[in-house]
């Protein structure tokens, strides 16, 4: 049979993650490719989920989400950022941030509309844009003074008459950049000038280092009314398998997203929702410890990668480090990623897979540091073989 997959999804057929994970398993390499933690979230939150299941919270919750979670999301946004969202009508619970992103793009973009996305990007963005029949307009983040950022002129040039939305992920996976107020002001200015909707992926909102603040784009003047804010419990509370996310936006935007969401999944799993509500209200102290621990892990891994001979970009947030492979004499991250298990017993992800134009990220590898210290130390000691 010819490939039965619709044409617009064919370029998304195979992902590098399956290949790299299989490689790690086959070779016994330390896997720093996968971006999920190898330790559990706050015990009382886990207990809350167990209680919910045992207590009979096992049928369809309301389409917009369990009220307890919508209220906790609203209270969290207000307390942390001074942004008010009505839990009834301006908050929608989704099956992770991933569904929120897909539903937002499907709900808000007509076929042929353009969506500006910073590359490298989280891999679901391009697929969601393609599913909607929309057109990706990539703007490249490049290293400048030790961090990845965009060229304001390139950003300005990316918007045109067909541009509908801009997707903004800060703290940014995979570069670790946390956008500054100045960068966000440029994005806000573009949105105002071209009447764009902003879709912000803030799943790493709590995971910033060295006191660098996460500034939601929606806090900038004029932005709340045109921004769809997306976040999720997965990264904040180390429960990436729970797939519990949420959208905060003005009512007409939430209604649009919910119109699509109800026919993708109708609603999200109930037990995780009450546990996530507990966590947002009572476990931010635990998150502060997670953040401090991750900062130390970042330092551990960046020091090790530097000692191994990579040029390392120290991230201000997220789980990930970008390493330039050229000082070690390599030029293609995909080639090196496939050889790294035999060269050094470690698995990483070639960053080029996160670009619309892979040549722009050819020389980077992405390493994850959301792992136990002994795992990072083992990887670092193995990577010394490269030097
Ligand atoms: C992990 C991740 C997501 C997915 O979040 P879920 O809640 O698991 O769907 C979305 N965006 C980015 C940037 C991520 O790293």
Automatic annotation (TrEMBL):
One of its GO terms (molecular function) is transaminase activity. It comes from the Bacteria. Its cofactor is pyridoxal 5'-phosphate. Residues 30-383 form the Aminotransferase class I/classII large domain. It holds the Pfam family Aminotran_1_2. This is Pyridoxal phosphate-dependent aminotransferase. Keywords: Aminotransferase, Pyridoxal phosphate, Transferase. Its EC number is 2.6.1.-. It comes from Planomonospora corallina.
């Amino acid at each position: 049979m010819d490939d039965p997959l619709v044409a617009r999804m064919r370029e998304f057929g195979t992902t590098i993650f399956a290949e790299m994970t299989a490689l790690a398993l086959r070779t016994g390499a330390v896997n720093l490719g996968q971006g999920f933690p190898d330790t559990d979230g706050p015990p009382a939150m886990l207990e809350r989920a167990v209680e919910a299941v045992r207590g009979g919270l096992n049928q369809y919750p309301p389409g917009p989400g369990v009220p307890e979670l919508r209220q906790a999301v609203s209270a969290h946004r207000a307390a942390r950022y001074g942004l008010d969202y009505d839990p009834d009508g301006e908050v929608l619970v989704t099956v992770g941030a991933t569904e929120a992103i897909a539903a937002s793009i499907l709900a808000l973009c007509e076929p042929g509309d353009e969506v500006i996305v910073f590359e490298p990007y989280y891999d679901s963005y391009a697929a969601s844009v393609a599913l909607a029949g929309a057109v990706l307009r990539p703007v490249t983040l490049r290293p400048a003074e030790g961090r990845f950022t965009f060229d304001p002129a390139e950003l300005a040039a990316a918007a045109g008459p067909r541009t509908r939305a801009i997707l903004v992920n800060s703290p940014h996976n995979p570069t670790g950049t946390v956008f500054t107020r100045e960068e966000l002001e440029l994005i806000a200015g573009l949105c105002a000038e071209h009447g764009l909707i902003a879709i912000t992926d803030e799943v790493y909102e709590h995971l910033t280092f060295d006191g660098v603040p996460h500034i939601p784009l929606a806090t900038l003047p004029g932005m709340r009314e045109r921004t769809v804010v997306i976040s999720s419990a997965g990264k904040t509370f180390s429960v990436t398998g729970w797939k519990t996310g949420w959208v905060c936006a003005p009512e007409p935007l939430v209604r649009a997203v919910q119109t699509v969401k109800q026919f993708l999944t109708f609603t999200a799993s109930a037990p995780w929702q009450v546990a996530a509500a507990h966590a947002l209200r009572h476990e931010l102290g635990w998150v502060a410890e997670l953040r401090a621990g991750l900062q130390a892990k970042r330092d551990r891994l960046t020091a090790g990668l530097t000692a191994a001979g990579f040029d390392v970009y120290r991230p201000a947030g997220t789980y990930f480090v970008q390493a330039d492979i050229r000082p070690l004499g390599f030029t293609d991250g995909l080639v090196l990623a496939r050889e790294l298990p035999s060269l050094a017993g470690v698995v990483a992800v070639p960053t080029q897979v996160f670009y619309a134009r892979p040549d722009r990220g050819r020389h980077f590898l992405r390493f994850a540091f959301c792992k136990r210290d002994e795992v990072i130390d083992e990887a670092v000691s193995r990577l010394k073989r490269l030097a």
